[in-house]
Amino acid sequence: MLLVLCVDLDDDLGRKTGFMTPVIGREPVEEAAVALATADPEDSDVNVIFQGLHVYDDLADRDESVEVAVVTGNDQGDVSANREVGDEVDTVLASLSTAEDVTALVVTDGAQDESVIPIIRSRVPIDGVRRVVVRQAQNLESMYYTIKQVLDDPETRGTLLIPLGILLLIYPLALIGTLLELPGFVLGTTSALLGLYLISRGLGLGDRLDAAVERARRSLYAGRTTLLAYVVAAALFALGCVNGFDTLEAVRESAVGDAELPVLLAAFVNGSVHWIAAAGVTTSLGQITDEYIAGTLEWRYLNAPFYVLSIAIVLHAVSAFFLDRVEITYFAAALTAGTLLGIVSTLTFAVAESRFSDTDDAGDSGARKADRA
């Protein structure tokens, strides 16, 4: 038996005529079609139901086993409507009194109603799909549905509409730039914004920025000191760079002739190393604090601030020596002190971790023996 299945996904039939669905049989389906045409002659579902009747009559004239039915969904969204259609298809199939295998011919009015086809196919084999459209408006509903789907997707909406919006703003911005006598600046800024947006979309920088903001938000609400340490460290790093450039300019002005690149680099390092070292110590102490609060602190983590100080001592001595601000004796002593500080901290915390880890393991073993006893 062939079941001609007319699909009304948003339940125009039930909402506009009060018919209970599913509607099964030629006479009830014809009454439903006339009622919907009377209630709303412009509704495209009227054409769907009459097309179903036309197919039914054509097959019945050929003495084929055929039945016609109308199934509807609801106006609460695609998922809920699809489920409603699936339930009504089950009802229709259960009402058919035939020993023959049942297949279906689905009649719809466009792409939106055809989204329910997988639901129908899971219940009954589908021989074909007949889309009914008004000849004067062919493909109009499909185009509308496609545009609607694109605009409902936040990612696709942002990808398409933001560049289009920036392009449409170029002309009014150019007019404003002409009035302000800055047309080149306005056009250049607009082009730069569009380019930066496209580059960020291409590289996925938006997702990374969202992830960074989410991590910062979680750190803020979790009371993590690392977030505060990073903010302070960023400020110290910026101050270090400014002070480094000031030192570089002072050395350049005091030099006879053009200063060499190694000297300028040493001047920058000498002026900024104190601030940058303070930034490094700040971040390492913040991380250590969070590890201690979380109960995951290990002894070797305490090496970080000492390593930062060691590197800072060495860099300061090397840069000062290049600038002829210290003697060779100070230079050698600073290198030795920085190296020894790193080695001593490493050995100290390694020994401490070894001893305390052994003590903890022994205590845990004794506790387990006591529990077994």
Automatic annotation (TrEMBL):
TM spans (from-to): 158-179, 185-206, 227-245, 304-323, 330-352
UniProt keyword list: Membrane, Transmembrane, Transmembrane helix
The keyword Membrane is annotated on this UniProt entry: yes
Transmembrane helix as UniProt keyword: yes
InterPro entries: DUF373 (IPR007254)
UniProt protein name: Putative membrane protein
Organism of provenance: Natrinema salifodinae
